[in-house]
Amino acid sequence: MTSTLSQQIQEFYDASSGLWEQIWGEHMHHGYYGADGQQKKDRRQAQIDLIEELLTWATLSHASDILDVGCGIGGSSLYLAHKFSATATGITLSPVQANRAIERAKAAGIAAHFQVADALNMPFADHSFDLVWSLESGEHMPGKAKFLQECYRVLKPGGTFIMATWCHRATSQTPLTSDEKTHLEDIYRVYCLPYVISLPEYEQIAQNAGFQKLRTADWSTAVAPFWDKVIDSAFSWDAIVGLLGSGWTTIQAALSLGLMQRGYQRGLVKFGLLVGHK
């Protein structure tokens, strides 16, 4: 990653992760509200359900060596390690996140290791993991092809790559309008993203990287209610007090939550899934 973008991402998550954990818990990703987005459920349960639904969709029932790319404070890493009685490794650009994940792993007695590392230049040998898991980190990658190439490189033969990431709508029929581009640029600025691409583009990149048995899915409808829940939670007293002490980047992100909500509503923002094998 470019040093400037890398630093921006690090600072954003260093500043905001503690508040997110306080208000939402250990999972720093969307929730799943049923295929039609209509299921009513506890917000943290919705996040756990997203992990389980992803595993079911990918038909994954076993893993022994897991890499969580963009691990946050270890939510998915520890959940998967416990579920599969596996060893997990997580990487993040944020030292605050890595240290918190280490604390949580020790407290839970789970075999998981966390470190600060760049997903575009991972410090692991070829063929190291039988599951590479990327839950809402691809959108931060300035080199989408390099990112998938690295995920393929560290995956063991026969292993599984599961990715869920923010996308924009497909553009094969209708290019993005100037208004849509402006909307996306506002999202990029607030959430420290270089750019996002469409799910069909990700599928082509994954195919070029060597992944086999590729499948994709669009779960935008299933996860869109998540942003309504986040906006509601931002108006709680604890959230307001926490925001005031977390710095401008976190406050700006909170004030801009409607960008993602409206992005889903207009069909511009998409939640894309991809599974592939080596």
From TrEMBL:
Residues 154-163 are annotated as: SAM motif III. PROSITE patterns: SAM_GTMT (PS51581). SUPFAM superfamilies: S-adenosyl-L-methionine-dependent methyltransferases (SSF53335). Keywords: Methyltransferase, S-adenosyl-L-methionine, Transferase. Residues 66-75 are annotated as: SAM motif I. The keyword Transcription regulation does not apply. One of its GO terms (molecular function) is S-adenosylmethionine-dependent methyltransferase activity. Residues 127-135 are annotated as: SAM motif II. Residues 67-163 form the Methyltransferase type domain. One of its GO terms (biological process) is methylation. Belongs to the class I-like SAM-binding methyltransferase superfamily. gTMT family. This is Methyltransferase domain-containing protein. It comes from Myxacorys almedinensis A. The lineage of its organism: Bacteria, Bacillati, Cyanobacteriota, Cyanophyceae, Leptolyngbyales.
